[in-house]
Amino acid sequence: MTTTTTNHHLSPAFPGRAPWGTANKLRAWQQGAMEKYVQEQPRDFLAVATPGAGKTTFALTLASWLLHHHVVQQVTVVAPTEHLKKQWAEAAARIGIKLDPEYSAGPLGREYHGVAVTYAGVGVRPMLHRNRSEQRKTLVILDEIHHAGDSRSWGEACMEAFEPATRRLCLTGTPFRSDTNPIPFVTYEEGNDGIRRSSADYTYGYGNALSDGVVRPVIFLSYSGNMRWRTKAGDELEARLGEPMTKDAVSQAWRTALDPRGEWMQNVLRAADRRLTEVRKSIPDAGALVIASDQESARAYAKLIREITGEGATLVLSDDSGASQRIDDFSQSDARWMVAVRMVSEGVDVPRLAVGVYATTISTPLFFAQAVGRFVRSRRRGETASVFLPTVPNLLTFANEMEVERDHVLDKPKKEGEEDPYAEEDKLLAEAERQQDEDTGSDDQLSFEALESDAVFDRVLYNSAEFGMQAHAGSEEEQDYLGIPGLLEPEQVELLLQKRQARQIAHSRKRPDAEADLLELPAERRPVVTHKELLELRKQLNTLVGAYVHQSGKPHGVIHTELRRVCGGPPSAEATAGQLNERIKKVREWATRMK
C-alpha cells in the first residue's frame, strides 16, 4: 500500500512511543505547539511564530507524526515563492519526507510523499489540488497564510482546493496584512469592540523568542539628513528627515534619501559596511543585505558597494530560478554583500545575514516585519543583528514595536477625522494584483526629481528605547556606535549603548557650540525616550483632547486634525515625543484661552 511506502520513508527518529522522537532536539515552543496539537487533534491549526523561530521544523515534525500515525497519507505545502517552495522540499528531505517542488499536474511519482507548490500555482489550478485532496487523506501546510488574503482569487482558490483536506496547518511569522479579505481556514473572534480578529492556536512572539535566545536582538541605526528635490510643478523643496512635514513631503524626502546618486545612500552603505566589518570580528561569515525598491536602484546600490568595498555584491533582481540559485550560493559562501529587490525579502533564508539596509519606501508593518525577519535567525547565543533605517516616523514606530503581536483585523475601525491607516497597504495590494512587483508606481516616479541629500547619524533604537544623538557621518561619535561588538548578550547591548550615549554627551558638553558634532538639540535636551513613555504621552494627549471636546463642542477627529495642521507631523500613533509634547502644549493653550 502507498501508506506503507510513506511510512517506510519516514525518519526512524519518529517511533510510535515517542511520536515526534526529536522532542529533545525541538525548541520549547515547538514542543509545546506539538503537544497542544497532539492533544486536541484539530482539523485546522494556526501557529504564529516570529521569523527565525523555526516554523518549518515544527510543521515538518508534525507532518511526520501525522504520516507515521496514518492520520494522513500525503502532504501538500503551499509557499509564497518559488524559492521558498524549494526550501521546503529540501528541509523535508532532511527528515525523510520527499516533496516534489516541480509538480504541475498528473499523477505523482511513487517515491514522493507529497508536493510543494506556490499560492499562485494553486490559484491557476485549484481543481487539480482539490482532486488530490479528495483522493487521499491530505495534510495541507499553508506557509505565510496571510498570502491567501493577498487577493480574493488566491483566497477563493485555496478554499476550493483544500476544503476537502483532512488536516490544515496554517503558519505565519509576521503581522497579518491589514485588508478585510478573510483568510481561508483562519478562525475569527469578535471582541468587545465589535471588531473581528484572527485567533491563533499557538503564538510565539519575538519578545518570547528573544528571551529564549532563539532569535537575535536587533539594533536599529537610524539616519537623518537634509534632502532637496524638485516637484513636478518645478518647485524646489528642502526638508530634513524626521522633521514634521506633510505625508507627501515625507514620501518625497524619503525617496530622495534612497536615490543612489545622493550622499545619504552612499554614507549609509559606507556605515553599514563598517558595521559589517566589526560584526565579522566575532561572526567571521556574517553577511549584509540591502533591500531595494526596484531593479534600477538595486543595480545602482550594487555598483556603490563595489566602489566602497572593492568587492562585488550578489544581485537578486527577481524571484526566478536564477535568483533562487544566487541566494543559495550566497548563503553557502562568506561573501559580504547581497542586494535584493523587495519581492524576495520574505523567504530569503540566509542565517548568516547580520546587517541590513532598509532601502525601500514600503512602510507597512507586514513588510517591515518580513524584512527585519531576514536578520534575526540566531545560530548561537550572543549574535546581534543591525538594521540601518532612514529616520521616518512609520519605520521608527515599527522598530519600537518589534515585540508587539498583531492579529488580522477583519473590520476596519475608523473614527471621524482620522486618516485611513490601511490606505497604503491597500495600495500595495492593488499593485501586487497588477503583478508589477518589480516596477510599481512608474508614473509616480515622474512626480519629483531628487537633487541632493546628506546623511546624519541620528539615533539607535534597541529594546523599545532610543540612544545617542545626531552626529556627522564618518565622525568619531558615529563610529562609537558602529563599533559595538557583534557578539553580546541582550542586556550587554543595552548597557553598552547607555555607556556610549553617556560618552557622547560628555564629549558634546566639552566642546564649544560652534564645534559640537550635533546638528539638532543639545545633548541634555535629548534624553532617552522609551516606547512606554511614548505611550504615556499619547494617552496624555488623548485625555487633553477629550477634555477639550467638551469645552469646544468639536469632535475628537477634528481637534486631532487641527493639531496636526498647526504643529505638523504624522498621526499621533507615529509622532515622536517632541511632536506629541508640542501638541499637548498647543491643546492646553487652546483650553486656557476658552476659560
End-to-end separation in angstroms reads 86 Å
User: Biggest β-sheet, characterized?
Assistant: 9 strands, mixed
Number of helices: 20
What is the strand tally?
A: 21
Q: How does the helix and strand content classify structurally?
A: alpha/beta
- β-strand amount: 15-25%
Question: What is the oligomeric state here?
Answer: single chain
Q: What is the 3D shape?
A: globular
What value does the average pLDDT take? 80
Instruction: Kindly state the percentage of residues in helix.
Output: 40-55%
Radius of gyration: 25 Å
Give the low-confidence spans. Answer: 1-24, 406-446, 518-528
SSE layout and pairing:
Blueprint: H1 2-8, H2 28-40, E1 44-49, H3 55-68, E2 74-79, H4 82-94, E3 99-100, E4 114-118, H5 119-124, H6 126-135, E5 138-142, H7 152-162, E6 167-172, E7 187-190, E8 196-199, E9 202-204, H8 206-211, E10 218-224, E11 226-231, E12 236-240, H9 247-258, H10 263-279, E13 287-292, H11 295-309, E14 314-316, H12 321-332, E15 337-341, E16 353-359, H13 365-372, E17 385-390, H14 393-400, H15 423-433, E18 448-453, E19 456-462, E20 465-467, E21 471-472, H16 476-482, H17 490-510, H18 531-552, H19 556-567, H20 577-594
Parallel strand pairs: 1-6, 1-9, 2-4, 2-5, 3-4, 5-6, 10-17, 13-15, 13-16, 14-15, 16-17
Antiparallel strand pairs: 7-8, 10-19, 11-12, 11-18, 19-20, 19-21
Helix pairs in contact: 2-3, 6-7, 10-11, 18-20
Give a nutshell description of this structure.
This protein is an alpha/beta fold. The protein is built from 20 helices and 21 strands. The termini are far apart.
